Structure prediction request, 707 residues.
Amino acid sequence: MPVFIQQTQVYQDDVKAKFGSPATSIYDGDMTIFHKTNSGASCCNYISGLFSGQPNYATKPLFIEFHEINIKGEQHNFVFNEETYTGSGASRTITGSYVKLYNNNTERLATTTSGISITGDLTISTINNAGSDTDKFLVSNAGKVAFRTGAEVRSDIGAGTGNGTMSAWELTADSGGTETVTNGESVDIAGGTNITTTRSGATVTIDNDITNNNQLTNGAGYTTNAGTVTSVAISGGTGVTVSGSPITSSGTITITADNNGTVTSVATSSPLTGGTITGSGTIGITQADATTNGYLSSTDWSTFNGKGSMSSWSLTGDSGGTATIDDGETVDIAGGTNITTARSGNTVTINNGITNNNQLTNGAGYVTSSGVTSVATGTGLTGGTITSTGTISVDSTVVLTNNTQTISGAKTISDTLTMSADIDFESSNASILMGASSTFQVDGDSGVGKFLKSVSGGLQWTSITQNVGTVTSVAVSAGTGISVSGSPITSSGTITISATNNGTVTDVAVDNPATTAASNQPLQLTGTSTVNPTISFHRLAVANLPNLIETETSTAVGGGVTQGTWNANTQLDITDNVDGNYQGEIVYFGTASSSLTAGKLYLFTTTDGEWEATLATTVGKTAGLLAIALGTSVSDGMLTRGIYTLSYTSTGATAGSVLYLSSSSAGTVTHEPPSGTGAFVRIVGTQLDATNGQIFFHPDNTFIELS
Prediction:
């Protein structure tokens, strides 16, 4: 009969509750539940089906059958084990056995007949390094984890067996010259005369098609003979040993080279070191210094590459005074009154804005008239005011025809003026102006052949008395700025007097510091020194300015630098927020098939030396030398590295943002790297300001192609 227990049953340590049969002193029964101690200390809780004293004897299984089973541990994990049995006793088999782990009622791990199935992400906190190259890589195969060898992975991703990415390589041959082969291009290794080529996989075999001497023409000393050879002899020259010669019927002549092309000695010359090598040795090269040729170290290269920084120069003008212009400052050649200036590239043109005399003020003796609209008459004249047509007459009541009359200002007399009294010229600059055909009569005498002479009674004509002497020589001496030819004249002839310099520059020269080559001098004179010469500053000479400038100890010597410091450091200041302003390294080489756009990015192509707009969709418009156009033509300059104000980069930008070549808009940059198969990612610069568009243009020579 059943026993109902209505109170808590307490079992002491190691006291077992036994269930099933047999339950003897030898066996524990089919199942026991107890709390075990270990050396007197509390240890573990057990539900056991093992026979006491028979730990390896198979026992019956444990079934827990409930609608829902919650097994709660410290970590709140759930573990279920389900089995299906066929048969009983020793012949029993277990099928469909598996273990499942759940998290929050979601299956995460289960055992299967082939392994373990994981649902969701597998997070491993630490993966230890293999410690050696096992050449195995874990990959996903239809959701299952499998391994692939290194060769298989390269094949899977379409990569070669080498390391890294090749953007271009150089192809040359015995004929000379070099061709750049860019990534993706094909190279045809073609056969020439009596040469054929075949390709198998990645191997090209080059075969010589000459199989007998009938395919060859005779060289010097060789003849083709169809007759009968009675004797063949070969003599050995330097480095050759001959045996079996001559042959008079049949036989073999053996020719042996004393030295089969083996190098026995390698000599070196400066700057190479290590020779002469007759066995083994090492060939090296020395580092260059002030007196020794050799290779250029990275430090020396950086120093050399950074040369060309001018710290300051002096600016003056006709007004006097001097201003020091520091490196990076801007000089404005401004126009003054009626003067305008225009800049194109490195040339400033100064224009005189005066085109007519209305832009000038009148000097002494000049009157500006804008058209007479009204003529009024004053004292001594009548007939005014005249606004269209009319007649002005002398007022006889004011202008006297006898006695004393005072006339001021210029007067024109178109008829005979008869004077019966004195004419008094009181003004110091008064003059009587007469035409070439006019006459001046005194007492009715026109004075032909005479000269007018002042006498006590006034003026009178006086006859000219000629000198009857003889001039035997006439000479003219030349003073400063005058040249004389034809002097002296002793009978007849012409003396020519010429000014040696009528205010015209006749010769122009430039005073350069001492340099090794004229092409590197900073001041360049083009044209001739005597006819319209042009003096310009040689921009390429900037790279060697510290070596070109001669420091003068005396201010009396022109052309030198008496103060300031020349150094090899290049200082780039952030440009202002005016779009197109720049500082940095500028080149002027290359061509452009069409007009450039200032501020756009261009790539210097290796095939034809043209500048083409960048676009990060093809390697041909991504890889190579990049530059920002400073104008519409290459002659305006191409900025290869430096500071530039590029207004359209401000959208979405923050100071320090990385800039990339755009794959959607030719010649532009973007803050987001291109994406999508076949796009190229290349860093070209850094944003310096969040709103004004200043960037530091420093293109990285490496790029990534997205697959």
